[in-house]
Write a structure and sequence with these properties.
alpha+beta; seven-stranded mixed sheet; Aminopeptidase; globular
Length: 156
């Protein structure tokens, strides 16, 4: 999976997607520090230990660099940035039963807009899995020669 590059100065707005989800009872928001244990445990159970480690790191930033999609007191999805490297987006995951409702789009754009607000002009999506999704939603472009990138030699 290649890394991808996103122009943060040409992002589509996130507000319409968040408003549509809010009308359906889903809130997309920045995580709060006291939720760390709940969110990290959910990520570990749903997506595995590697993503849980990255998610946990995002809670050490101020502001927290993790966004959540929640409904009825439950986590449905998460997205992080600056978890493994500065200026990197990811990981991101949506619970299987909540997919195809636009949560991933809203979480991705919420993080990317936050990165832009923090002064970045570009973002890197590390080891981008669904490359077509990232291209369609955020205009991401593959970075040639970026595979395996920063994850080379990672313990598994």
């Amino acid at each position: 999976m290649p890394d991808m590059l996103v122009k943060l100065y040409e992002l589509p707005p996130v507000e319409p997607r968040c408003a549509q989800l809010a009308a359906a009872g889903v809130t997309v928001r920045r995580a709060l520090a006291p939720e760390r244990h709940i969110v990290v445990d959910w990520v570990r159970q749903t997506f595995g230990a590697h993503w849980a480690s990255e998610c946990e790191t995002s809670f050490s930033h101020h502001p927290v660099s993790c966004f959540l999609a929640t409904a009825e007191g439950r986590c449905l999805g998460f997205a992080c940035y600056e978890a493994t490297c500065r200026d990197f987006f990811g990981p991101m995951g949506v619970a299987e039963e909540a997919r195809r409702r636009g949560l991933g789009q809203a979480l991705l754009l919420a993080c990317l807009h936050a990165m832009r607000a923090e002064g970045y002009g570009y973002a890197i999506i590390g080891g981008a899995g669904p490359t077509e999704f990232y291209r369609r939603v955020a205009g991401a472009m593959p970075i040639e020669g970026s595979q395996p990138g920063i994850y080379r030699g990672m313990l598994r």
